[in-house]
Amino acid sequence: MKSRTREYLHRATGLLALFVWLFMATAEICPPLHAWLHGGTIPDDDDCPVVAIAVGHVHVSVCHVEPVVPVALIEITPRVEITVFVPSEKVLPNDRAPPASCV
User: Fold this and answer.
1) Does an H or E element contain 32, and which?
2) Which of 30, 42, 84, 97 gets the most CB atoms within 10 Å of its CB?
């Protein structure tokens, strides 16, 4: 991937994450928006992300991903072609030849 494309992708991901976080924080402050997200009424046992942000029960975990090991050597083995020529054991006289349809 080009570095400029990667840079735009990082910026877009950051902006999307910021928008989602601010939208959830706004829904935490504004009960009508929170009710709208639930379809009209907020249930009594609400455990949605808006309540988790409000209470502070956001657990962050770190994902450890192993780096990709580049391939150092690719071995290409050439294919050996063998051509076998079998000479005819029958010798034709001087005036004789194979039919024209076989040539």
Assistant:
1) helix 31-37
2) 42
